[in-house]
Amino acid sequence: MNAFYAFLAGLLLGVPAQAIPSAISLQSAYSEAVKKTEVVPQQEEAIKQAEEKYRQAFGSILPTISGLASYQWQAAAGGGAFSPNRQPLVRVSAQQPLFRGLREFAALKQTRFLQEAAQQQKEFALRQLFNDVTQHFYLVLSLEQEILNIQSQITALEKRISDLKQRIKIGRSRLTESLTVQASLSTLKAQLVQTEGQLKVARETFSFTTGLPDSSKLQDGLSIKLKVAPVETYLETLNKRPELKMRQLQYEAADQGVSIAKGAHLPNIDLNGNYYFKRFGFFDQIPWDFGISLTLPILNGGILSSRVSEANSLRMQAELEVLKAKRAAIQEIQSLHATVQADLEQLSALTEARNLNEANFKQQNREYRNGLVNNLEVLQALTAFEESKRNLDRAQYQTKIDYLKLETATGNLPQP
Questions:
Q1: What residues make up the domain containing 7?
Q2: What's the whole-model pTM score?
């Protein structure tokens, strides 16, 4: 069992809904989403339908038994044992297909491939659901951190306004300095209201996806790796992707469809048998019969040849879908890998920027107390420092989203 199926098993056999922990991890959120979503039951029904089609195809090679009862009146035509005016008939008939151009066996293989393709479609739907949960999960956390950062910046500005009022009283600062800071404070409060609205929407979306209360506390346990493996390592796992397996299985099913269409040109051979409980006239003395029948298509207006051509076209279409899906998968992995690498480089640069802005702000504060710089320069340093903190936090959460997308794209779902 690979990591993905082990991960799913841990989720589906994990914490029951009535025992949801107070802090929700990404894994727990995904587990609840699997229980809540309609996608999984829909795919399970598709699997059941494919299973039933397999049973129907298997039933076509088994014998069939049917009963018939009739009573016919006809005008007298001389009477006698061969043409009585009353003709009762009660019989049981059995038929065993012996040869149908091997179409029945091709149909068995085709339905089996389609059944496996339906299973892979379910796996693909689960991976898409995981990506959706990841996006909503980290969006909530990112907005919560954004609010904390804005509140921290508001607190710093309020403290600065308080200090400026004291300095204005003793004549060391001007009123315009305080007004400048107050204007920045008002802008931040407006940003806070906007971000709180965005958080509410994000929480409602998260609740809709997972079925969890929108007030649930989320806990992030994923650490960011400092570097990712080479892209070739990820491309080696390409064949694990469920949508590629699904497309390949659909191609195999289409290939069997060609065999089914070609088999219609071959003769049908059947073994037939009847047992009569009641017959009319002379035949009443013959209780049973059996025989072998052969049916050979000779002229059908080109219908069978057209069906073969259609099946070949469907197979070519399925083959092109395989190639298209593989190209798209390669492009997705390469793009996500490049994105994650860029994210990591950006994190490094943003971390350095945050540290430099913090040092600059502290130095500006010291020089401001000594009268070496003015309030506007300190305010600019504070704003730059707080903005660098916010940019870094946003980048960290986006990096986690991109990293998990990359892992999912290569057939892995890491446990946070």
A1: 3-67+100-269+303-409
A2: 0.79
3-state DSSP call for residue 406?
A: helix
DSSP 275: E
Give the whole-angstrom CA distance, residue 322 versus residue 73.
62
Q: For residues 247 and 262, is the Cβ–Cβ distance under 8 A?
A: no
Q: In this structure, which amino acid lies at residue 128?
A: Q
Asked, for residue 36, whether it belongs to a domain, the answer is: yes
What are the 10-residue block averages of pLDDT along the chain, 416 residues in total?
Answer: 44 43 84 87 89 88 91 70 77 90 89 92 90 94 93 86 74 72 87 94 94 91 81 87 92 93 90 90 84 89 90 95 94 93 93 92 83 79 89 93 89 55
Specify the CATH number for the domain of residue 131.
1.20.1600.10
Q: Is residue 88 part of a domain?
A: no
Separate counts of helices (H) and strands (E) for the chain: 9, 6
| DSSP letters for 13-50 | TS--GGG--SEE-HHHHHHHHHHH-SHHHHHHHHHHHH
Residues in the chain: 416
The closest of 204, 203, 205, 212 to 32, measured between CA atoms, is 212
Phi-psi region of 371 (alpha: psi -120 to 50; beta: other; left: phi over 0): left
Tokens encoding 294: 């052969």
Distances (CA, A) of 110 to 52, 61, 240, 288: 13, 15, 22, 38
Closest CA to 95 of 46, 49, 62, 68: 62
**Do 380 and 177 form a contact (C-beta atoms < 8 A)?**
no
Q: Using the structure block, give the residue that is written with the tokens 């088994």.
A: 62
